[in-house]
From TrEMBL:
UniProt entry tagged with the keyword Cytoplasm: yes
One GO molecular-function entry: lipid binding
Any one cellular-component term (Gene Ontology): cytoskeleton
Species per Swiss-Prot/TrEMBL record: Canis lupus familiaris
SMART domains named in the record: PH
Protein name (database record): Oxysterol-binding protein
Keywords: Coiled coil, Cytoplasm, Cytoskeleton, Lipid biosynthesis, Lipid metabolism, Lipid transport, Lipid-binding, Methylation, Phosphoprotein, Transport
Domain PH: 74-171
Amino acid sequence: MERAAQGADGGGGSDSSSRSSSRATSAGSSPSCSLAGRGVSSRSAAAGLGGGGSRSSPGSVAASPSGGGGRRREPALEGVLSKYTNLLQGWQNRYFVLDFEAGILQYFVNEQSKHQKPRGALSLSGAIVSLSDEAPHMLVVYSANGEMYKLRAADAKEKQFWVTQLRACAKYHMETSSKMMNQVEGQQKNLVHAIESLPGSGPLTALDQDLLLLKATSAATLSCLGECLHLLQQSVHHAGQPSHKPGASENILGWHGPKSHSTEQLKNGTLGSLPSASANITWAILPNSTEDEQSLQPEPEPNSGPELVLSEDEKSDTEDKEETELGVMEDQRSIILHLISQLKLGMDLTKVVLPTFILEKRSLLEMYADFMAHPDLLLAITAGATPEERVICFVEYYLTAFHEGRKGALAKKPYNPIIGETFHCSWEVPKDRVKPKRTASHSPAGHEHSVAEDPSTSYKLRFVAEQVSHHPPISCFYCECKEKRLCVNTHVWTKSKFMGMSVGVSMIGEGVLRLLEHGEEYVFTLPSAYARSILTIPWVELGGKVSISCAKTGYSATVIFHTKPFYGGKVHRVTAEVKHNPTNTIVCKAHGEWNGTLEFTYNSGETRVIDTTTLPVYPKKIRPLEKQGPMESRNLWQEVTRYLRLGDIDAATEQKRRLEEKQRVEERKRENLHTPWQPKYFIQEGDGWVYFNPLWKAH
């Protein structure tokens, strides 16, 4: 981030001990930030300028608009500060101009160039200005969009002067944004009320598609603005609390906008089906009644205990999971519009039955297995010669794992696993391919890697996943390689929220990678996922901060998946930093795109580029349907998948409804008998879940 934010600066003289000269001047004397023709309110200013580069005293630029009817030119704060550019160029003197009314901090190469285009500009609305002891008289300005300026003043008095004025500017513009949000929220409430007051029949009704679109987009816009404001306020609130660490559930904001009457209908389960003019698909909330319970006789629950999965029955997977649809069709758009107009912003989607046409043709349990498509990188972690090399190998594997879990760019939702559902598979990995990435020879580009069939020349990696809970929806998965004495145990609770024109999914839980040969455990978390642009061509992005840590070695890593800014910016960006905590040493940094090119820089100065799109993909091995149990994912969902492939949405919807209704009937039966569900392969331990026969207990 630092390089991206500071890298635009370059050239000019370098001076680590800047003798800055800050002063408050009339905007009329500063053409680069002239405010004379903008009719802005005046603020008091004391020039306080002496000869020989003396500066104005702190507080010379007042931060409150005048209440008088006459308007004067806005004074601006300007002067020389040292700015950190990058490791190569270090600190350089730059001429800074603070435009208080616009809330922008600009800088130029020198005072003479301030009439030209600025070298950089930072918005101060919601910005955090903090002191730093990294260098003498240093301050850091963190913009709400993620940019950061590291600055140095000539002395302590100059530093405090700039800090006071920058903070005052940030506070003023934050308060202005809050007032505007209140006005916008009131106007959006009036709009929703006007639409919902329309009659149910006639030439213009509340279900008119254009009005639904207007209602949905206004709600989404308000949601976006509210989230931005909430983030800014949260950042300012926690500015002085470096120890604050947001929980997993904080990755998705719960800002609640206007509440419509129809929201309560949806919440209470009274919303039935759409008018026939829209489509033939019914939206429904999970029923509270016992309707159809008598007609569906529950089968004996297949949870009698773990089953032996024979690896000789497994064959290389040949199913194509690419989602080729180009976007949302018109009739589907009407359905989504109707849903969006009814949902409350921030609403938990756990009990909302989503339409079948948005589903991709695999279970969530299988999607977790697809994250293991580069098992050679996972197994290579144990080959690392030192703890430092092993943690870096794990970070390299972690960052390359996500792109293969997403099949194509289109955002589609995997099947929600049924409680008791399981998924089994394995991989054969040639032994000569298992090397640490930094010492491995370059692998040939390509998406498919031939599988070594000779057990003596390959490692076997086994995988099992199970849905252990329905409410909340908790999935567990475990994989192990006995030859490498490596295993991963993970439990994930998925929590979905409606966010206007997008849906956010928090992945709450954690995983543990165990390297038994080295006695090391790496605890890691997972990012949130977002489905964006759900009315046009939906796409997926990851977001949030995740952590990787090993208590034994003292190494940890912080990985940040950056969501796309509202204006401009790249998509799918990720940055990472690996640190040795006992010595406070950063041993590796990484940046790039999680579904594209990643660049790793090591503390030795060496760099490595990994292109995730050219990494060899090892197809998983899975048993054919006729040899799978009734609760194994592909067998369980085979009819839904078959009808989706045929394009028969109605039939797929009916098959999906039968599966989910059977689950609900059996759940009510267990509740009546006070019989808790007993998973096959995982045992609850505290807040987590552990595989029943893990490698660390067997050896």
